[in-house]
Amino acid sequence: MLTICLPEYNEGEVLFEFVDKLNKEFGNAIMVIVDDHSPEQFQYDVKAKYGNLENFILIFNSQNLGHGQSTLIGLNKAIETENEIIIAVDGDGQFKTEEIKKLYQSLVADDSIEVIEGTRTNRDEEWFRKVISFSTRIMIYIKCGKFPKDANTPLRIYRRETLKSLLSEIPPDSLIPNLHISSVTRIKKFNFKEVSVQSLPRGGGLKNENMKSITWNQKIKNLPSRRLLKFCVRAVVEWIKS
């Protein structure tokens, strides 16, 4: 009945701890892990831990495609499992599994709900990430006249047919599928619910010993990297064209 989609990149032990908690919480759920071309040793560790388990589907990108593409790959594979409910959540352990379970139970209990968005609270982020987060909410508002609480949340729960409909409206090579999903959900008037969840510090290989982002090649703490700024420009261009 349930598939859980987890895009990840080099998350280390955090991924294993998080996935093991999800596996215990949800029992027979199918787990789709999309590894975005992590270092070979980490890919080997993922295969060794989950490769022989029947409820795991492992996908390893042949090159680093980015979070957006990894998310879309995982969601499309989740649809193929034909389970009625699909949970999408990043593999960096930033959510409590018991809260994810409550969101899932909320969807199961109400047949009218088509999408649940986990809106993050208590987020400890650098100033520029807060600016980016607020800007994404403005982008959604301009397009559909609705002001989301968390436009880019990576924690969402879908009914399968609803997710298929959402993905059909999104560019297949999108950098920012979660933003598009937030927009289409509101434009198409799907019955969605925003539920506050606690945001935990991101784990895994995302930061070095100086707490600078490795993913975005951050060299100066509390300042956005050139890579992040370039991504934001590309994302805005994609948004305008969509």
Number of discrete domains: 1
Mean pLDDT: 91
Question: Count of DSSP E strands?
Answer: 7
Strand order of the largest sheet: 3-2-1-4-6-5-7
Class computed from helices, strands and strand pairing: alpha/beta
Quickly count the helices.
8
What is the CATH superfamily? Spore Coat Polysaccharide Biosynthesis Protein SpsA, Chain A
Q: What are its keywords?
A:
single chain; 242 residues; 7 strands; seven-stranded mixed sheet; alpha/beta; Spore Coat Polysaccharide Biosynthesis Protein SpsA, Chain A; globular
Write a structural description.
The chain has 242 residues and is α/β, with parallel strands linked by helices. The chain has one domain: Spore Coat Polysaccharide Biosynthesis Protein SpsA, Chain A, CATH 3.90.550.10. Helix content is 43%, strand content 17%. The protein has helices spanning 13-26, 40-50, 67-80, 97-109, 127-144, 160-167, 177-187, 226-241, and strands at 2-8, 30-35, 56-60, 85-88, 115-121, 156-159, 192-198. Strands 3-2-1-4-6-5-7 form a seven-stranded mixed beta sheet, sandwiched between helices. Strand 1 (2-8), helix 1 (13-26) and strand 2 (30-35) form a beta-alpha-beta unit. The radius of gyration is 17 Å and the shape is globular. 35% of the residues are buried.
